[in-house]
Amino acid sequence: GFLENLAQQRQQEQERVATQTLWFSILFIGLSFKVAIICGIVTIRRVSNRVRKAQQALEAIAKKNLAGEDIEVLSHDALGQAFSSVNQTKDALGRVIGEMGEIGALVSAAATQLAASAQDSARGADDQRAQTEQVSSALTEMAASVGEIAKHTAIASESAGVAASSVLKGEQAVDVTAAKMSQISDRSAEVARSIE
């Protein structure tokens, strides 16, 4: 009887230990499962928050807004490298847009200078055209004056020729008159002598 009781007690002890071990195992597995679920939820939320921030940053970049903050990179895994690439892309786009703005300002300044030069050239061309028109008008007036002078010179020349001819005829008339007066004088003298 004593050995049977002892064996029975040991068996009960083993059953109790086995039961306790089973319950501890179930409890540990249950707690581990809960911890794994909680860790999974926390990890998913953290990753989803980071992905949401990355999505917002990409949407801002798509809307040409590069003023937003960089995405926080907390790890060097694939997701962290993707976020780092987005930050680098945003910075590169910002630099490119800045350089394009500077180039646009330079082009605008050059266009303004070209417009001013074109206006100066147009004014110079207008001034030159006006001066050319004045010179042309002066030359036309001069040609008309030269024509008038030539006409008056021809008339004066003709008048001088007529005057010279008249003077020549006058001289001839004076010579004829003087000769006749000399004849009259000679005859008068003859008449006077014959009267005496």
Whole-angstrom Rg: 66 Å
Oligomer: single chain
| Helix share, percent | over 70%
Q: What's the number of extended β-strand segments?
A: 0
Can you give a write-up of this model?
- With 196 residues, the chain is an all-alpha fold.
- Helix content is 91%, strand content 0%.
- Helix 1 runs parallel beside helix 2.
Structural topology:
Layout: H1 2-62, H2 78-195
Helix pairs in contact: 1-2
What features would you highlight for this structure?
single chain; 196 residues; 2 helices; 91% helix
Give a short summary of the structure.
The chain has 2 helices and no strands.
